[in-house]
Amino acid sequence: MQISSLTVHCASLCLDVVNQEDFEKLTIVDIKNWQDELYLYIENRIEIVKCSDEKQHLFITAIRDEVLMILMLSKENPCARDPYWILEKMQRKIALSSHLYINNSDL
């Protein structure tokens, strides 16, 4: 599996958050409230792609939602904090989203 730099950035973000001492005090609502921040984080880290603003928005939103899902799952299940699992989940989501929104000219 080839790992993209965006995968590394997002997985690192997830691991940084779940390994913080205060993570246990966070609620699911707290995590959901990071939507806008996470969107900007991902937007600032994607490579420049030649596609419509709408496709780029869909791509970033899909990746952001995966990060949120990983964080919420990690809250409920410590096994979801495994670095290899997080890397795999992120890379699969990025590859699928890239195919659906960036590389697919039918959208």
Quick description:
By secondary structure, the chain is mainly alpha-helical. Helix content is about 65%, strand content about 0%.
What do you see in this structure?
The chain is mainly α. 67% of the residues lie in helices and 0% in strands. α1 crosses α5 and α3 (35-43) packs across α4 (53-76).
Please state the overall shape, judged from the principal axes of the Cα atoms. Answer: globular
Helix percent band: 55-70%
Biggest beta sheet attributes: none
N-to-C series of helices and strands: HHHHH
User: Any idea what the radius of gyration is?
Assistant: 14 Å
What ranges have pLDDT less than 50 throughout 5 or more consecutive residues?
Answer: none
Structure characteristics:
107 residues, mainly alpha, 67% helix
Summarize the SSE layout with pairings.
Elements: H1 5-18, H2 28-32, H3 35-43, H4 53-76, H5 83-102
